[in-house]
Automatic annotation (TrEMBL):
Domain of life: Bacteria
Cross-referenced InterPro entries: Ac_transferase_dom_sf (IPR001227), Acyl_transferase_dom (IPR014043), Acyl_Trfase/lysoPLipase (IPR016035), Mal-CoA-ACP_Trans/PKS_FabD (IPR050858), Malonyl_CoA-ACP_transAc (IPR024925), Malonyl_CoA-ACP_transAc_FabD (IPR004410), Malonyl_transacylase_ACP-bd (IPR016036)
GO-annotated biological processes: fatty acid biosynthetic process
EC assignment: 2.3.1.39
Full protein name: Malonyl CoA-acyl carrier protein transacylase
Family the entry assigns: Belongs to the fabD family.
Reactions it catalyzes: holo-[ACP] + malonyl-CoA = malonyl-[ACP] + CoA
Amino acid sequence: MTLAFVFPGQGSQSIGMLASLAAVEPLVQETFAEASEVLGYDLWALCQQGPAELLASTERTQPAMLAAGVATWRAWRRHGGALPEAMAGHSLGEYTALVCSGALDFRTAVALVQFRGWAMQQAVPAGQGAIAAILGLDDAQVEAACAEAAQGEVVQAANFNAPGQVVIAGAKAAVERAIEALKARGAKRAIKLPVSVPVHTALMEPAAQQLAERLRDTDFAASEVRDLYTVDVRRHGDANSIRQSLVEQVVKPVRWTQTIQAILAAGARTIVECGPGKVLTGLNRRIDKNKEIAMLAIEDPESLQQALEMCRSNA
């Protein structure tokens, strides 16, 4: 393996994202227009004009980030960008990876992630869940503190993002207890995030069941590249296995650290983040302890050109 692509999830969205890329690449707005036909509203206008509170709504954020990742990927391929040997996505980003690898139809994916976001929002009423980022402790310490703080409620590690960076989620009171327990254990920072949907926890079981029903009628094709799934850091090639992985992903943690470690162990020399923001690139650099891997995030014309040149030089 020489080249891997990764796709961000919720949290990387922002008003005005991909505007400069869209100014020189018509297919960006074309991709958003395609998504808008499925959704029944102007997704591009929402991403460019807001309001930010509406874009941050889970059932709108998910189609927006999917469209952004696919649009950036299409720009990459139109300019002769190479097909990577592997892809991975962070949470929602797994759907983007499936589309870009050829395993899932884009329009189907748009409707699917809109439903996924709606089901997640319904699973836990607003204000009852909480999410927090924990810095400075290892995974085992975070898991132990969550077990101690649960007291019959749900609070658990939701994202193993990088060494010393874990996101926890669950019932609001349990998360607050866990924050105090983690501070007592020496956490450098414990920051509540402005998200109320405790995704990747057992509280999402109703959403997982609804998603399982929806996925039964979803077709998956053979992938052009290797998709690596964060729920178990494995490939899932057949349709039933993919469906099961996507359902489990809703209630189980994102194992991003292990996923990138697996990509590095397979010999990747370049990892490109495809879509707005640089969140995953920052995490990947923390995971790559040897600092030998070329990493770049594509989100505008300049970074697209840099990535093209970087991949040619590292080929």
